[in-house]
Specification:
CATH topology of the largest domain: Arc Repressor Mutant, subunit A
Structural class: mainly alpha
Number of helices: 9
Distance between the termini: 72 Å
CATH superfamily of the largest domain: Winged helix-like DNA-binding domain superfamily/Winged helix DNA-binding domain
Number of strands: 3
Shape: flat
Strand content: under 5%
Order of helices and strands: HEHHEHEHHHHH
CATH class of the largest domain: Mainly Alpha
Number of domains: 2
Strand order of the largest sheet: 1-3-2
Helix content: 55-70%
Length: 207
C-alpha cells in the first residue's frame, strides 16, 4: 500500500515538473530531490522505473536532439534524453491535481500537492489544506495525551524530544490556519468581484 502511495506521489511530481519545462533525466533528478527530499527520502532508483511506466502509458515522450557533426552511432550514447509531457500527460496531471482525498494531505503527498497549488483549483486547494489541518489536529491530540501519560516516567531528553515534536505540529497547524484564512478571503473576494461584473437583468416595464 505504501509503495502505491509513493508511486502516485512520484508520478505527480514528475508530471508536474515536466509541465513546467522539458528536462534531461539528470536535471529531473535534481529537481525531484529538492522537491521530495523536503518531505521524504527520495530514492533515485525509483525515478527511472517511474519514467518507464509514464513512457509506456504515453504520458511522456523521449526527445533525443540531434547533434550536428556527430556520427549517428555516437549520438545515441552522447545525446542527453529530454523528457517531455504529452497531451495525455497534461490531462493526467490535471486529474491528479483535482484529487483531494486523504492521500493528498498525508505526510507523503501533501508537500508535493502543495508545490503545485498554483496549477490547482481554489476549491481543491482549500479541501486539501482543511484535510491536512484535520489530520494534524488528530495527531496533536494523540501527542498531548501521550505526553501527559509519560511526562513523569521519562528522562529530560526524551521529554524535550516529545515537546519538540508537539511544537512542530502546533506550528504547522498555525501555518495551515493562516493559509486557510487567506484562501477563504481570496475566494470570497473573487465571488464578490464576479457578482459585481455580472450584468443586471433588464427589468420589465409595464405599459
Amino acid at each position: 500500500m505504501a509503495g502505491k502511495k509513493g508511486a502516485g506521489v512520484l508520478e505527480l511530481a514528475v508530471l508536474g515538473l515536466l509541465h513546467e519545462s522539458p528536462m534531461h533525466g539528470y536535471e529531473l533528478r535534481k529537481r525531484l530531490n529538492a522537491l521530495l527530499g523536503m518531505f521524504r527520502a527520495f530514492s533515485y532508483g525509483s525515478l527511472y522505473p517511474c519514467l518507464k511506466q509514464l513512457l509506456a502509458k504515453g504520458l511522456i515522450v523521449e526527445d533525443r536532439p540531434e547533434e550536428p557533426n556527430v556520427p549517428l552511432a555516437l549520438q545515441s550514447r552522447r545525446s542527453k534524453i529530454v523528457y517531455k509531457l504529452t497531451a495525455e500527460g497534461k490531462e493526467r496531471l490535471q486529474q491528479l491535481l483535482t484529487e483531494a482525498g486523504p492521500a493528498a494531505w498525508e505526510d507523503e503527498g501533501f508537500g508535493v500537492h502543495f508545490a503545485f497549488f498554483s496549477h490547482t483549483r481554489a476549491d481543491v486547494r482549500l479541501r486539501i489544506l482543511e484535510g491536512r489541518r484535520s489530520r494534524l489536529e488528530e495527531r496533536l491530540e494523540r501527542l498531548r495525551a501521550a505526553l501527559a501519560r509519560t511526562r513523569e516516567r521519562v528522562d529530560t531528553y526524551t521529554l524535550e524530544l516529545q515537546n519538540h515534536g508537539l511544537e512542530s505540529v502546533e506550528r504547522e497547524v498555525r501555518w495551515l490556519n493562516e493559509l486557510i484564512g487567506r484562501e477563504r478571503a481570496e475566494q470570497e473576494q473573487q465571488t464578490k468581484n464576479s457578482s459585481k461584473t455580472t450584468p443586471d437583468m433588464p427589468r420589465e416595464t409595464g405599459h
